Amino acid sequence: MPRFVDRVVIHARAGNGGHGCASVHREKFKPLGGPDGGNGGRGGSVVLVVDPQVHTLLDFHFHPHVVAPSGKQGAGSNRDGAAGADLEVRVPDGTVVLDEQGRLLADLVGEGTRFDAATGGRGGLGNASLASRARKAPGFALLGEEGQTRDLTLELKTVADVGLVGFPSAGKSSLVSVISAAKPKIADYPFTTLTPNLGVVSAGDHTFTVADVPGLIPGASHGRGLGLDFLRHIERCAVLVHVVDCATMEPGRDPISDIDALEAELAAYVPTLQGDQTLGDLAERPRAVVLNKIDVPDAREMADFIRGEIAERYGWPVFEVSAVSRDGLRPLIFALWDMVAAYRAAQPVVAPRRPVIRPVAIDESGFTVSSDGDGGFVVRGTRPERWISQTDFGNDEAVGYLGDRLARLGVEDELLKLGARPGCAVTIGAVTFDWEPQTPAGVDITMTGRGTDIRIDQSDRIGAAERKIARRERRKPGSDDE
């Protein structure tokens, strides 16, 4: 049996950037070929794309993890790694994207609308790109950045022109089945309709869509029945139609009380999209009333008796129909089309949505240094945290390069101002290390072997050889220690 899923949580993970390559050009008769390591490729992004052929979020219900491919590592001979392809995920028209805190990120309406759900990581630079006057042949490369990981909530709001609302068993599904080609499940018990049904209705040369929303009851806006889960599907409807059961035998119910109860629920419902930019506020949508089941004699009498009062009280058009005998269907169809066309024409013209390009800010030099309360310090900032993730801490030269970058940014000066002492713990990102102020910015360093840094190798500890010589000196006759 097919299932309708209109709310899912997906785990989107973009691809990681490829690592840079540390390579030296080797060729006969060219002993000093220079660095030729290529850059790593960019990781693929996860992109949501509206596809009119997709009508439900069912696929994400069974496969919530969406992973984009990573970039490839760079290689020698200045060969850059291949970039990971963006993963385009097809979603239905009318999908709303929310973040972990429930904030609205995107409203995907219209074929081809795109949204970057997770951005791929940048590839690391190879040693050819890191060469400078001070480092003519770097023995290290930068690591690729990790791709963005996000947990996003997708909500589907059915895009329909007319929304049918009413109590359970009011005949909404029967009405949809006779005015369109849709074949929803119809039975003689409440809450037969568990998922919205969408039908396409022809009115002469024009067509419009009708959505059958599962039955509402008093308290639906607060979680009673099925209404809270499916009230979102009327947010995009241009016209709302009250389908009233004139043949109901339940005590305390009549057409006017049913309409008042449903209007109270519609007023109490707080939509996710306040003031939809294409249709306006929900309370201002045009309404119509359909008095259903007039094929029953008592229901016809009730409809004739109450029709004038409804029109006078609410000012909405009233139609008497029967889904069984099909009385009054044709005038209803053309009247609904006129209401839809008039309402659409009265709305302001919406400019077509264009891709929004958000370039990365050039000035990312901002950072903050704060005390962690235990004698250490925490450095926060876009560039320091990114540099930490790009550094191979198993390579002394890469660590020295990181120290130079932090010093040029002013991190060491700020640590000194706050009273940092050599050996105190400094945390940047996910890495904590013992700080040693030994890399002043702008000072040329003496280069040693590839992959090493003389400043990292420096130590005040006495080596084994020096201790052996000192012991021999102490054992000589006439020494001061004797």
UniProtKB/TrEMBL annotation:
<keyword id="KW-0460">Magnesium</keyword>
<comment type="subunit">
    <text>Monomer.</text>
</comment>
<dbReference type="InterPro" id="IPR027417">
    <property type="entry name" value="P-loop_NTPase"/>
</dbReference>
<feature type="binding site">
    <location>
        <begin position="166"/>
        <end position="173"/>
    </location>
    <ligand>
        <name>GTP</name>
    </ligand>
</feature>
<protein>
    <recommendedName>
        <fullName>GTPase Obg</fullName>
        <ecNumber>3.6.5.-</ecNumber>
    </recommendedName>
</protein>
<feature type="binding site">
    <location>
        <begin position="322"/>
        <end position="324"/>
    </location>
    <ligand>
        <name>GTP</name>
    </ligand>
</feature>
<dbReference type="Pfam" id="PF01018">
    <property type="entry name" value="GTP1_OBG"/>
</dbReference>
<dbReference type="InterPro" id="IPR006169">
    <property type="entry name" value="GTP1_OBG_dom"/>
</dbReference>
<feature type="binding site">
    <location>
        <begin position="191"/>
        <end position="195"/>
    </location>
    <ligand>
        <name>GTP</name>
    </ligand>
</feature>
<keyword id="KW-0479">Metal-binding</keyword>
<dbReference type="InterPro" id="IPR031167">
    <property type="entry name" value="G_OBG"/>
</dbReference>
<dbReference type="InterPro" id="IPR006074">
    <property type="entry name" value="GTP1-OBG_CS"/>
</dbReference>
<dbReference type="InterPro" id="IPR045086">
    <property type="entry name" value="OBG_GTPase"/>
</dbReference>
<dbReference type="GO" id="GO:0003924">
    <property type="term" value="F:GTPase activity"/>
</dbReference>
<comment type="similarity">
    <text>Belongs to the TRAFAC class OBG-HflX-like GTPase superfamily. OBG GTPase family.</text>
</comment>
<feature type="domain" description="OCT">
    <location>
        <begin position="359"/>
        <end position="437"/>
    </location>
</feature>
<keyword id="KW-0342">GTP-binding</keyword>
<dbReference type="GO" id="GO:0000287">
    <property type="term" value="F:magnesium ion binding"/>
</dbReference>
<keyword id="KW-0547">Nucleotide-binding</keyword>
<keyword id="KW-0378">Hydrolase</keyword>
<dbReference type="InterPro" id="IPR036346">
    <property type="entry name" value="GTP-bd_prot_GTP1/OBG_C_sf"/>
</dbReference>
<feature type="domain" description="Obg">
    <location>
        <begin position="2"/>
        <end position="159"/>
    </location>
</feature>
<feature type="binding site">
    <location>
        <begin position="212"/>
        <end position="215"/>
    </location>
    <ligand>
        <name>GTP</name>
    </ligand>
</feature>
<feature type="domain" description="OBG-type G">
    <location>
        <begin position="160"/>
        <end position="341"/>
    </location>
</feature>
<comment type="function">
    <text>An essential GTPase which binds GTP, GDP and possibly (p)ppGpp with moderate affinity, with high nucleotide exchange rates and a fairly low GTP hydrolysis rate. Plays a role in control of the cell cycle, stress response, ribosome biogenesis and in those bacteria that undergo differentiation, in morphogenesis control.</text>
</comment>
<dbReference type="InterPro" id="IPR036726">
    <property type="entry name" value="GTP1_OBG_dom_sf"/>
</dbReference>
<keyword id="KW-0963">Cytoplasm</keyword>
<dbReference type="InterPro" id="IPR006073">
    <property type="entry name" value="GTP-bd"/>
</dbReference>
<feature type="binding site">
    <location>
        <begin position="292"/>
        <end position="295"/>
    </location>
    <ligand>
        <name>GTP</name>
    </ligand>
</feature>
<dbReference type="Pfam" id="PF01926">
    <property type="entry name" value="MMR_HSR1"/>
</dbReference>
<dbReference type="GO" id="GO:0005737">
    <property type="term" value="C:cytoplasm"/>
</dbReference>
<dbReference type="InterPro" id="IPR014100">
    <property type="entry name" value="GTP-bd_Obg/CgtA"/>
</dbReference>
<feature type="binding site">
    <location>
        <position position="193"/>
    </location>
    <ligand>
        <name>Mg(2+)</name>
    </ligand>
</feature>
<dbReference type="Pfam" id="PF09269">
    <property type="entry name" value="DUF1967"/>
</dbReference>
<dbReference type="GO" id="GO:0042254">
    <property type="term" value="P:ribosome biogenesis"/>
</dbReference>
<feature type="binding site">
    <location>
        <position position="173"/>
    </location>
    <ligand>
        <name>Mg(2+)</name>
    </ligand>
</feature>
<dbReference type="GO" id="GO:0005525">
    <property type="term" value="F:GTP binding"/>
</dbReference>
<dbReference type="InterPro" id="IPR015349">
    <property type="entry name" value="OCT_dom"/>
</dbReference>
